[in-house]
Amino acid sequence: MDLVVTTGGVSAGASDVVRAVLDADDARLAEVDVAAVAVRPGRPQALARWRGVPWVALPGNPVSAFVSFALFVRPALAVLAGREPARPVLRAAAEAWPSPPGRTHVVPVRTLPSGAVARATAPGADDRTGGHATSALLGADALALVPPDVEKVEAGDELDVLPLDLPFGAGA
Questions:
Q1: CB–CB of 162/86 below 8 Å?
Q2: CA angle 37, 41, 42 (to 5 degrees)
Q3: pLDDT in tens, the chain (172 residues)
Q4: Which of 44, 47, 69, 85 has its CA 20 to 30 A from that of 79?
Q5: 38: closest CA among 128, 100, 96?
Q6: Cis before 75 (ω within 30)
């Protein structure tokens, strides 16, 4: 086994059993680092070694787990496989959208024929259900990384965009 990846149970709630294992005094568990990373969605994360095998604990919210996998696990798997991880590319925003300041806001986007990106939204969704809805991922082919100091992305703003290259979704 090269890597263990779990989702859910890493926060600090009473039912967060992965966190309880990570906090336990167990000789088989080493190098534990539980962190609140500065991304939205995807704040609670953990890294550890279980019996010498790297362990990544991702958040339980489905969109948070997806984003965390794309940002942290997928690059690690590429390196373990001897390949270069995907790198962000610069793309212009096709439209304006709000972004909560304070953490890097990771927004599911779709690439338009022009090369610009627009927020991916759930079918039939409005702005209140936008990119945090699990179904919005169906139309996404990339993740835009909005810096923590940006409160509103304006049409034409250049953003780092991480292509997903998934076998499903909008395609690019």
A1: yes
A2: 45
A3: 788 999 988 877 777 788 788 788 888 787 888 888 899 998 888 888 888 889 899 998 899 999 999 999 998 888 888 888 889 999 999 999 999 999 999 999 999 999 999 999 766 665 544 445 788 888 899 999 999 999 999 999 999 999 998 543 344 3
A4: 44
A5: 100
A6: no
Tokens of 75: 């690059």
Check if the beta carbon of residue 126 is closer than 8 Å to that of residue 117: no
Which of 79, 143, 137 is closest to 105 using CA atoms? 143
Strands 104-111 vs 39-40: parallel, antiparallel or unpaired: parallel
Q: Which of 85, 87, 88, 106 is nearest to 97 (CA)?
A: 106
Under 8 Å between Cβ of 21 and 45 = no
H-helix or E-strand spanning residue 121? none
Q: Are 121 and 130 in contact (CB under 8 A)?
A: yes
Contact 114, 138 (CB under 8 A): no
**Residues in the chain, how many?**
172
Instruction: Report the C-alpha gap between 108 and 100 in whole angstroms.
Output: 15
